[in-house]
Amino acid sequence: MLERKEAMKHVKKNIKFDNVKIVYSILSELLKKEIFSYYSFAHEVRLSIIFLNQDKCKEIEKIFIKQPRSSVGFTIFNKFNHNPVLAIEVDGTEFHLNNPAQLVKDKKKDGIFEKYGIPILRLATNQASTIVVVKYYKH
Q1: Which of 46, 73, 95, 129 is 20 to 30 A from 105 (CA-CA)?
Q2: Helix, strand and coil in the chain, % to nearest 5
Q3: Average of pLDDT values for 42-64?
């Protein structure tokens, strides 16, 4: 638990895509509300930080988790035990939807999160409803 807490302090906060900046801003505002006071979030968290225990994973998934570039866009976590409660990915149309290799990686990532009971919300940047979904998603 302490290892995850320390890691969350060092998650990079530089954001280069506008759609990701928007989601970051919405999450910042949303998590200020009293109802969400037990939660915080981090941007670009490596899967190896989220999945410290990989007992449920196949060997290929363990390799994927350990890759330095394997991360999730946003992780909402419990402030007190630092356990992740929701993952959010902002999927750019060009990089995700039109890239078969990336779709395979996304499916693998989705499967890992499912094994651990952590919901993953994928927001496609070509959807006008993306912002509304993030604003009103309740877990």
Answers
A1: 129
A2: 45, 20, 35
A3: 95
When pLDDT is averaged across residues 37-44 and rounded to a whole number, the result is 94
- Three-state DSSP at 65 gives helix
Annotate 65-93 with b (16+ C-beta within 10 A) or e (fewer). beeeebbbbbbbbeeeebebebbbbbbbe
- Copy the structure tokens of residue 16: 């280069």
Class of domain 2-136: alpha beta
- Rounded distance between C-alpha atoms, residue 95 and residue 99, angstroms: 6
Share of the chain above pLDDT 90, in %: 54
Residue 30: CB atoms within 10 Å: 18
Give the long-range contacts of residues 24-28, CB within 8 A, separation 24 or more: 24/74, 26/131, 26/134, 26/135, 27/74, 27/76, 27/88, 27/134
Cα 33 from Cα 105, distance rounded (Å): 34
pTM, rounded to two decimals: 0.79
